[in-house]
Amino acid sequence: MVAIEEYLATKSPTWTHDSYHWYQKMLGSFLRWCESNNLIDLSQITAVQVQAFVAAEPQLADNTKHHRAQVVKGFLRWCVDDPDFGVKERTVKRIEMPVVEQSEISIFSDEEIQRLLSACDHTRHKLRNRALLLLLLDTGIRLSEACYDGDRPEETTGLLLDHVILGKRGAESYVIVMGKGRKSRTIKIGDETRLSVQKYINHERGRSEHPHLFLAQGNTPLNVRTVDQLLKNLGKQARVVNTHAHRFRHTFAIHQLMAGTSALVLMQLLGHTTLEATKVYTRALTQMQTRQASVSVVDVMRGKRKH
């Protein structure tokens, strides 16, 4: 289908490597389903047929079904702008998105963070590892935005030394992050993170001319796979379960909301393209606050009986 090829070609400059291949895979499945159902023209496709495609493989997880519908709906919405494709706007509007059960957001406690930081002191690159953990926690950036991803060589991944601005005490310090879709954003860092990063640069990183901030042995950029393993090891040593990079991102997001940051600003800080992605955290915070505010009726009644 020519429209799919044109759509992928148009969107590829703003997508990451993984996003491009995900869309290519999903739309390829949609094309094969259309062909098997004798739908050779986009003008023949209805909202009901899109939902039939989404439900065609009942064994798929709810998240995958949601993504299938999201990809096809986005593609058809793009087609609406070109009359030659024959896709009507009302068709796109009628496509219902499958309901997805929201998974619970897990964040680190203050005590768990302290144990992880203490565990860094027993590693070979203790200053680098401490700086990395504090930076992940203080900025909420994705692991591929902090460290080099060798699986995506055509993209700019990893934080560059020139993009780390360390002001003196009281002055603003921040990082410039290259996010998904080659979009940059600026995120402020606090004094403890600034001092930790400065200490790593002065005492462990040395005068390397490599552009990346975080380096591994042999003057090579620290890569995401190494960090994944590092975090698992730190978690075991610190007795902190579920220690992974995205949990630092979750912790950052929840604490930002607790501090009064608006969902719109948080969307910018996280590098999300839609507010809907950020609402995962607003819902999670509401659930946490509801649990904490809930009163045990039984305990209250028991207390009254004792008096």
Give me some keywords for this one:
307 residues; mainly alpha; DNA polymerase, domain 1; hpI Integrase, Chain A; two-stranded antiparallel sheet; 5 strands
How many helices? The count is: 14
What share of residues is helical? 55-70%
Largest sheet: 3 strands, antiparallel
Second-tier CATH architecture of the largest domain? Orthogonal Bundle
CATH top level label of the largest domain: Mainly Alpha
SSE succession: HHHHHHHHEEEHEEHHHHH
General shape: globular
**Assigned CATH superfamily of the largest domain:** Intergrase catalytic core
The averaged pLDDT comes out at 88
Distance between the termini: 77 Å
| Count of spatially separate domains | 2
Show unreliable segments: none
Number of strands: 5
CATH fold group of the largest domain: hpI Integrase, Chain A
* Structural category: mainly alpha
With strands numbered from the N-terminus, the spatial order across the biggest sheet is: 1-2-3
Hey, roughly how much beta strand do the residues contain?
5-15%
Rg computed from alpha carbons, rounded to a whole number of angstroms:
24 Å
Describe the 3D structure.
Strand 1 (164-165) and strand 2 form a beta hairpin. The radius of gyration is 24 Å and the shape is globular. It folds into 2 domains: 2-93, Orthogonal Bundle (DNA polymerase, domain 1); 110-291, hpI Integrase, Chain A. It is mainly alpha-helical and 307 residues long. 56% of the residues lie in helices and 6% in strands. Helix 3 (47-54) runs antiparallel to helix 4.
